[in-house]
Amino acid sequence: MLKTDHPNLVLINFKEPDASGHANNWNAYLKGIKDTDAYAWEIWKLIKSDPFYKDNTTLFVTNDHGRHLDGVKDGFVNHGNCACEGCQHINLYAYGPDFKKNLIVKDTYYQKDVAATTAKLLDLQMPHSEGKSIDVLFKKAK
Questions:
Q1: Helices (H) and strands (E) in the chain, counts
Q2: Is the alpha carbon torsion for 74, 114, 106, 98 positive or negative?
Q3: Following DSSP, what letter does each residue of 3-60 receive, concatenated?
Q4: pLDDT at 129 over 70
Q5: Fewer CB within a 10 Å sphere, N or C end of the chain?
Q6: Is 71 found in the same domain as 32?
Q7: Is residue 4 part of a domain?
Q8: Of the residues 91, 108, 132, which one is the last residue of a structural domain?
Q9: CA distance 114 to 105
Q10: So what's the pLDDT on residue 142?
């Protein structure tokens, strides 16, 4: 679909490693991490090589929630549902022609800020959103 239809907006949600984590399956959890990384890598390579997407596409890779750090409650099994540091921390990889390269942002942002940043990229108004655009990512003011 990505190669033939060239959609303008795509949201992909991989069920792993989340499903295996909640199922308390450590080996499948680790495999899910590796597989999802490989899928993200394939998408990134497509973006870099396909003339439709190249130099014209933004990619966000993030997780839906964090997980307990080792030794907190039951570890990875019931992850993402408390105030521990591990559950409160997620990662975001942001790539695209509007963004600075090799930037590591250590400020605190939230999932709702990814939506606000996406809206800014697309020149969409979200008047009822509580999110704020992650402006530090941008090469220049948008």
A1: 5, 2
A2: positive
A3: HHH--S-------TTHHHHHTT-HHHHHHHHHHHHHHHHHHHHHHHH-TTTTTT--EE
A4: yes
A5: N
A6: yes
A7: no
A8: 91
A9: 13
A10: 63
C-beta separation of 61 from 45 below 8 A = no
CB neighbours of 17 closer than 8 A, spacing ≥ 6?
28, 29, 30, 31, 32, 33, 36
Secondary structure class of 131 (helix, strand, coil)? coil
Q: Answer with the one of 48, 69, 91 that is the final residue of a domain.
A: 91
- Return the DSSP state at 101: S
**Domain identity same for 81 and 28:** yes
Q: What pLDDT score does 71 carry?
A: 85
Tokens 């003011």 locate to 141
Please give the backbone phi and psi of residue 44, each rounded to the nearest 5 degrees, phi first.
-60, -45
Residues of the chain by 3-state class (helix, strand, coil), percent to 5: 35, 5, 55
pLDDT digits (tens, 9 = 90+) for 71-110: 888 888 877 678 888 888 889 999 999 999 999 999 999 8
pLDDT at 67 over 70: yes
